[in-house]
Design brief:
Blueprint: H1 2-22, E1 26-29, E2 37-43, E3 49-57, H2 58-64, E4 88-94, E5 100-103, E6 113-115, E7 119-128, E8 134-141, E9 154-159, H3 165-204
Antiparallel strand pairs: 1-9, 2-8, 3-7, 3-9, 4-5, 4-8, 6-7
Helix pairs in contact: 1-3
């Protein structure tokens, strides 16, 4: 009985951890030279909208491009054409399919996702993916974006955390349930041991 409980708890915890690893974002260096092209293959863990963005060092990006990044700057939202050197063409295809999808670029004039004071991510497009499928994303830089090199840019593909709240809740409940099963098994083993010890002492007397 205790072994069965411990085994069930271990399986539940392992499943929850595997689900957590599957949801990790794709993050790779990006080629921002004019006409630079790269193709990235990745696996979709969820049937949900995915954000495609360029992740940067926030402080460097705010210093170099306040009109796009620094919300406290008077220049924020007032970038002149080409002042922020990022323009990408994105094409997506599911492996095994011949249908290619062009992803519409982000039309906002400034801002993005801020992770504390360290990371700024300029979202460049969104697309809905299907769980279990493998995709190829082709990225072409339409202008020379090498001025972004000082921000250490990386291409990231991820589901927004708010879109994963249901899965995160289930994963947390699974881990908690596994811990409870482990506690029950420990109590069971301790109780059986104490009963046998007591019976052995009574037998000796």
């Amino acid at each position: 009985m205790p072994l069965a409980i411990l085994t069930a708890g271990a399986l539940i915890a392992a499943s929850a951890l595997l689900l957590g690893k599957e949801a990790q974002a794709v993050s790779v260096p990006v080629d921002l030279r004019a006409d630079g092209v790269q193709t990235l293959e990745f696996h979709a863990a969820y049937s949900k909208p995915y954000a495609i963005g360029i992740e940067m060092d926030q402080q460097a990006a705010a210093r170099l491009f306040p009109c796009m990044v620094d919300v406290s700057s008077p220049a924020f939202g007032k970038c002149r054409p080409g002042e922020f050197p990022l323009a990408l063409s994105l094409a997506l295809v599911a492996v095994g399919s011949e249908t290619q999808t062009r992803i519409s670029p982000n039309s906002s004039t400034a801002g993005g996702a801020y992770a504390g004071r360290e990371i700024f991510t300029r979202n460049v497009g969104y697309t809905h993916l299907s769980s279990g499928k493998t995709y190829q994303l082709t990225i072409r830089s339409l202008i020379d974006g090498r001025a972004l090199a000082a921000t250490h840019p990386r291409l990231v593909i991820e589901v927004h955390p708010l879109d994963l709240k249901g899965e995160m809740l289930m994963r947390g409940l699974s881990v908690a349930f596994a811990a409870v099963l482990g506690l029950v098994a420990a109590i069971w083993i301790t109780t059986v041991y104490l009963r046998r010890l007591r019976a052995a002492r009574l037998a000796d007397t």
